[in-house]
Structures
1.
Amino acid sequence: MSPREPRRSQFDLGYIKAFLEDPGVAAVTPSSRYLVERAVKAMRLDGVRTVVEYGAARGVMTRRILEALRPDARLIAVEFNAELFRGLQALRDPRLALVRGDVREIDRILAERGVGPADVVVSGVPFAFFSEPERRALLAKTAALLRPGGRFVAYQVTTHLIPLLKDHFSKVRTQFELRNLPPHFVFTATK
């Protein structure tokens, strides 16, 4: 265990508490290392300069992205849940900008921070919790904020996003990671 990471049991208790208290939290455990590695590989972070993360939670994916990013890159991590956001504030990296906010307002959030086109957007936010119009609107905003050739990587419990992704992106690839609780699909959509 590295000194910058809390013990695993602390993560689990925080997730369980957030899950019980906030209907917008979909997981009771952090993403497994297998899911994180599959998602990071899908992001293709070599040469990437700007990454936006939807639903950073306690920062399991955030930490791994920072490990893979080049020194002059930046990561904008957005988390809605107050308790999970407090846990994120322990992360210290000059490339990281933490935002407590609702990803459905990502266009405003990024405009306020002067963030231009992103190379990658990654999402652990449970799109199934949004209404159909909210899903479509968020995917349209996501596609608009990506540079041409940019990638949207979403890890989700269900396949409901596939038809919507095909409406907004030129190419969609689906993978499945069984070694996670619960198992997740990893969608990679290219603009």
2.
Amino acid sequence: MSVLLLIAYYLSLAVAMLWCAAQVFAAVLGVWALIDSALRPAQYYAAADKRSRNFWLVVNALAAVVGSFLAYEAVLAVYVAGASTGVSFIGLLTVVASAVYLVDVRPALQALAPVRVRSSIRIPGRASQRRPGRGGRGPRDWSAGR
């Protein structure tokens, strides 16, 4: 067998595997966008002046289903036939739909979410703030002697 033929075979196999990985990534992107759009409250969409929650749920659900089908087809083609499937315009549309949600709509919705603050005020020299097992002053004791 010719060396050039082997190189061509392994290069085509590498391209097929890269295409398969891209299809799986597109499916994961669609599922992530679907889960994120399902977890956001409907009133955030109206407040952010974006399309409705149901619109984005349908778009992201279609993107996740079509992306998953194309990923399954690509994985099957690589491991059974050792070749890649062709570039699909529908696959490109699913990636664009998920990316538009994740890049444009999601940050606008996150800006409307309430901020959760978890903090406690530590007053130097207060016994209630000291942890048991630590004797003396802690690193945040700003008394005059330090």
